[in-house]
Structure prediction request, 186 residues.
Amino acid sequence: MASLKLSIVVLPTYDVTTLAVADASSYPTNPPVFSSTPQLVVTPPGFPLVSLNFKPGLYLILTSDLLGIGTVDMPLPDGVYKFNYSVPPTSTYNTEISIMRVDRLQEKFDNVFMSLDMMECDQAIKTQAKVTLNTIYLLIQGSIAAANNCAIIESNKLYDQASKMLDNMIMKNCGCHGTNYLVNFY
Prediction:
C-alpha cells in the first residue's frame, strides 16, 4: 500500500439539496481491495459528524436525510463542511478537507441578479445595484477562499456580510441610491 494517496473533491451539483463528494485517490491496484470499508466522516455546519461507508473510485451524493439533519428534499445548510476520508484499520491512510458551502446564498444572489433588469430604477441606481452585486460576489468568493485556507472565522464573517447585503437589496427592492457610483465611478 506504499503508493496509496487518498484525495477527495467536492463537486458542484447546482442544487441546494445535494452535495457531491468524489474519490480522487491514487490506489496501488485497480480496483483497490481493502480489509475494511473506507469511511467518509462528514461534519456539517452546526451538526454532529456522520460516518459513512465510501466506495473507492466513486462518488457519494449527500442529502439532509443521509446526514441525519432533515428530510431528503430539505436544503442542506450553508457553512463550513469538514470531510475526513480514511481507509481502516490504521489512521495512516486518511485525508481531510474543509469547504465553505454557499449554495443557498448563491441561489439568493442569482435571484437578485436576475431581477435586476426588471427593477424600475434610473441609470445611476441600476449601475449602483451592479456595483453592489459585484461586491457581494467578491464577498462570497472571499468566504470560499478563506474556508479553503482554514480561516473559518473570516470565512463566516464574509459570508454573513454578503448575506446581509443581499437581504438589504431584497428588502429595499434594489437597496441602492446611486450615490456610491456617482461619487466613486462617474
About this structure: The chain has a mean pLDDT of 84.
